[in-house]
Write a structure and sequence with these properties.
By secondary structure, the chain is mainly β. Helices cover about 0% and strands about 45% of the residues. Residues about 1-15 and about 75-80 have low confidence and may be disordered.
Length: about 850
Amino acid sequence: MHQSVYMIVAALLAGPSEFRIDTYIGGGLPSNVPATETTVWVSHMAVDASGAVYLTANKVVRKIESGLIETVAGRLPPLLVEDNGGEASEAYLAASNGIAVDQDGGVIVCDTLSDVIRRIDPDGTIHTIAGQWGVSGSMGSGGPAVLGTLQTPFEAALAGDGSLFFTQFGGVRKIDPQGILTDVAGDGTPGTGGYGDGGPALAARFQSPKDIVLDSAGRIYVADSSDGRIRRVELDGTIDTIAGTGFTVENTGDGGPATSAKIGQPCAVALDSNGGLAIGDAWNGVVRYVDSQGIITTIAGTGSLGYSGDGGPATLAQFGKISDLEYLADGSLLVTDTTTYRIRRIHPDGTVSTFAGNGTFGYGGDGLHISQASFEDPSDIVFAEDGTAFVADVSNNRVRQIDADGFVSTIAGNGTDGTVGLGGPAIDAQLGRPKDLALHLDGSLYVLTSWSWLRVIDANGDLHHVAGTGENNYNGDGRPAETAAFDRPEDIFVDAHGTVYIADTNNNRVRMIDGGGLIQTVAGDGGFSGHGDGGPATSASLNRPGGLLVLPNGEIYISELSGHRIRHIDTNGVITTVVGTGTGGFSGDGGPASAAEISVPVGLYMGPDGSLYFSDSGNYRVRRIDPDGFIAAVAGNGSTLYNGDNLPAVEATLRRPLDLAADPRGRIYVANGLSGRIRVLKDITDVSVAVFALRSEVSGSQVQLTWDTSILGEVQHRVLKEATRDVLGEVRSSRPGAVTFTTRLDAGIWSVLVEARSQGGSYLGSAGPLTFEVKEAQSTLRLASGNPARGVVRAVVSSPGERVRVQIYDLRGRRVATLFDGVLSADSQTVTWTGQDSTGRRVGTGTYFLEARSGTWAQTRKIVWQD
């Protein structure tokens, strides 16, 4: 959790009295990268008319087209809660499940936990088309869908006339093209055993209706997952079971009638062009197929959950839990393999491959900016003097590096939990769930793993063993550390002299590895009663030490996870309690820290002014003890939800704040455990932004520069010539995303950079320099249509940066019409003549001349016009 103390004493400014909070890492989703090389959380899918695949999961909507993936709606973290015409890219999707794409290109999403259905228009705006935000129910049938109430809408399907059918708790409902809501099936009461089969669908009962699909005739197929059945609503409004016999864990019946087959948990259905029905069985990880004669077979999966078989027969492959199915135009079947974080593709020849996903829950974005990178359970961060950050990406079994410009790479761990690879390159080694980091003065990085191992990545990038036997025990004092055992240590710290300290949590001790590699105990007698204040630290009891801070003069601070205290060891080795009564609670803000209650303190950080910051994890806050000994919360409002970016930190929510660290600028970073993010606390006046991914597109003398920014708020971007710092132009933005600047430049080699400044003028960030070539543009005139001409003449004129006049003359040199007069909007432009003079009268058959002229050049083309 800690950078070495030299970084603390190097800070220049005292800690601010107020903070604002932002997300530093976590929740990023790579865009425009190969879909098979990034994390894919997926719940449901839809395929549009062009073959693009849309998918929902984890509060976002993403799109896969031509093998590349991008995010089209939702944001992690979200900014916009409700919609009504807001930008989909900023929207909050409480639980995005069912998805459909309509004929106009609108994307319809079932926002299950919000009890609404929303539409993302082709222009990128989002609005609610059914239900009332956060109001659950089944009211409103016969009236406008936007005035009705929905109860956990789950999956949607479109009919040929544009009607939208969707499943919800207790049944199936419909929104017609006029926006009227009606009930289609189910009486709203849960029921099993195919209740109501053979009778009116509106009187039937469903246990857990999930997926829904319509055939070309308009019949409705519903996967009633918890009743183990596929049911069909006929055109006359009656309902019956067409596959499955009721909920079971079994997967039987291949080769016989589907109505006699046992289907574990059918959660997904899809119809092929032959009228056959594919069924995804989440429980058994198989895909069943019911042909037009009602006979069922297994077409994918072995019945054992897992991931295997790519390149071979789908029937021999392992799948995880299946939540959705979609057919592509070529007959391929896409399968959401949710527990292995992939979409698989069953080809028409029966073989299987991976369509999207790299198999990790939250690993992606190496080579990209932090705003696009995915992390899973980032538990700790440390900073080098140059601003480079290192992150313990726990569940990805990796250590990631973020350079000073915000770009991500992996420096240790191959993604596998284990111990293989010591002595070789850290990036190829098994790392074993790294949970805590510390930087040594020599540049080496210490890594504490969840399995009680202490490793080090040396300056050459190789991984070595330092301490721990891998067994949870207590031994080794006075011996080389590499032979010592720990019991689930939670924290490490490297002090200004290179001494390594370890919070040996379940042994209730703090231990130290000296410069000679020997280990000894410096605090704790193994007990957990909390006694010992006023005496030697080695004779005191520590109740599960979880965080460490060592000052340059040798003072040590220890947070006790179960003791609900922070203890202090002075330079004479005497221990006292700084804050906490020993009972978990929340009290004392504004008063003396010695009388305050805290709960499960973890991370510790000493500010430049001597204030002690700690993560009060059990109270979902970060609190501070000022130099006068008074305590106050500086971040977190006590709630466990996730919100608060760009707000005062005390109004934000922190889900299980863990370790604390600071960068060279003095900003405080909080590993926000349950949210999978690291948050940053900044001075209330500090506005930071990353400007990154500067790129160019050159067409003649016209240059388009594009870059990305991560800020929300008014920002002025300046494009500068690198050598002279001359300003080439300015552009403003007010929200995250791409920024574009277009200009004309003289021929030559250009090197430019972009600077971004806040509204108040403070420096924010820069991107570049970027070097590109602008070639000498030629002024030309060419015919783009046939000659002789009839009906229309098309010509392309190029005159970069100059005023140009394009005119038609007759054989006697008289001007017939002026087609263009001005500066072209691009390097080349098409002009047309339809055989009319300047008054609008048609000219007769004959010979004419098309002339383009500017101050420095003129060109003429002969036209034979046939009226």
